[in-house]
Amino acid sequence: MLRLSDFEKAKCLMNCEVARLLEHKSEQYKQMSNDSNNHTSQVFEKSLQYVKRFRRFSNQDAVKQVREVLSRYQLAEYELALLGNLCPETLDEAISVIPTLKTKGRLTMDSIEKLVNDLSMIKKFE
Fold this sequence. Notes:
The chain contains six helices and no strands. By secondary structure, it is mainly alpha-helical.
């Protein structure tokens, strides 16, 4: 299994979750600022634009559903975030982009395929 040292127990977020957090923070900055010239930092804005561009889900209900569905499987946090960000469309694609999914004894090929299908259904109905 992949070793992430200090980050092994860290909670990983999908791009869609980060986008939601940054959008909320951006709104807070706007409400707190009486000065219309007061802007957020360039790094903040670029980060927000990045996660908005690469998020796979924009509907908040879909984001919650993705996390709930993926949490049912025995996934490491980084695997969950990668699946939510990449949304592989086939079993082979999922295994090739996240090879740790086929670690012996954790998930069967059938469960990985079901996981991919579950993601596809959520994406389809978003």
